[in-house]
Amino acid sequence: MAKHHYIYIYICMVVKLSQGNRKLETSPSSSPFMTMDCNKCFSSDYMLLKPEEARLFDLIHILFSPEIEKRKFVDCPKGIREENFKRRWLIFVSVVVQKVLLLVSKPLGWVGRKIEWWLNLVSNNRNLGVLFLNFFKRKVVKPDQTSATFLSFIGNLDRRLELDKSIKHGDSRYYGALSVMASKASYENKAYIETIVRDHWKMEFLGSFDFWNDYQEKATTQAFMLRDKNVEPELIVVAFRGTETFDSDAWCSDFDISWYELPGMGKVHGGFMKALGLQKNQGWPKEIEQADNQSAPAYYAIREKLREHLLTNDGAKFILTGHSLGGALAVLFPAVLALHEEEKLLKRLEGVYTFGQPRVGYEKFGEFMKEQLTKYSIPYHRFVYSNDIVPRLPYDDSTLMYKHFGTCLYYNSFYKGKIVAEEPNKNYFSPLSLIPKMIIAFWELIRSFTIGYTKGPDYKESFPLRVLRLIGLVVAGIPAHSTQDYVNATRLGSSDVYLPVHTTPIHQTV
């Protein structure tokens, strides 16, 4: 398949050369998005949104005209018309949201830093009462944003840092329990991650990295790696960071509904591919030349580190994991490995574990991935908790046609798990599900005050998470996306849910 991909690129390049050189816009710009035309020879079809070029009249015009190729902020093959109004509406919304995010990027980041600082100030001084007491005593413990004790906003929702000692290697829940904690830790700073990996988990910290996004023209993708030497064979974990609450760049990746259709692979979400390391004018070349003044793209840097670490131990394996956007990157990583025919790495891939992962591609991409996962015997477990909104986006309908694939481990609000083909209410927004979702959200709010007593102090919920549960009475899918519920699901759920899908009947409750 990859050979056909490269042949296609070669033919496309020849055709382009025969048509004459394309004029590229190379004027400097401070926009985090690309500022020059992009050669899409690597894809058989595409639609690329460029919000930095969108103007008010142009934006409004797309709602009334199917000729999307005439819009400056839409890059697509000539002659393409979009007759479906719903799709044009989603393009409009995607571009508007990205423009707003770019506009508020700095103030949003500032607000986020202040909120995190105050949350850490309170926790460093135990609680508000002690903080006021320490203030009058002039003994206030101020937070340091680079320290090993400083937590992100997401970390303040769930402050647990220890692995569940009752779940050991050999337990079918072990990879899932380790993966969700690594996914949760990925939101934190380097000092925090290194400390918990080394001192609490007793594993080897292999590094925390910021990776280059060629389209946003800065390092906006994060991941870290660890090695578990306490098991045989040794296990390397790659954990991708998801969408941080106050990070405009990550939100732009989520809302960017650009797509590329790769030969043999199908249509894939453009924002996620860009975050993983898609190259502007080359797509997914097998090797790239890295500029000295910028960090490497995620896919290429992690692939190289895996080659290096796996070379030292012939029996070592690795797993990929992530929460939210991080889950999308985790499942796209083996897709690009397959595109490049990286058989040695794919044979060492022990599993992919994602939590609250959005859909990443169309039906053909799902078929491609199922073929590759089967070929290399790679377990893929996609965890979905209750009414979490993110796994139900982008839509799986006649407008967008995104599809999930693989094993879905669905947990209800009592953390009872079952294997399903698709999570219930797959597109989230449904009038019929409104009341049931509100009832579940109310139950989750009540549970936040009782679970510390019924399940133990390790499950006690923080004050910020309880505030988020209140918001859930309006939008139930927001608090359901927190890492707290996914950690609880891996610990409180039955181990039987991890049985291979062919040995567990669909919809079997465990």
Automatic annotation (TrEMBL):
Keyword set, alphabetical order: Hydrolase
InterPro entries: AB_hydrolase_fold, Fungal_lipase-type, OBL-like
Protein name listed in UniProt: Fungal lipase-type domain-containing protein
GO biological process, one term: lipid metabolic process
Pfam families: Lipase_3 (PF01764)
Lineage per the UniProt record: Eukaryota, Viridiplantae, Streptophyta, Embryophyta, Tracheophyta
Organism per entry: Nyssa sinensis
Domain called Fungal lipase-type: residue spans: 237-396
GO molecular function terms listed in the Swiss-Prot or TrEMBL record: triacylglycerol lipase activity
Top-rank taxon: Eukaryota
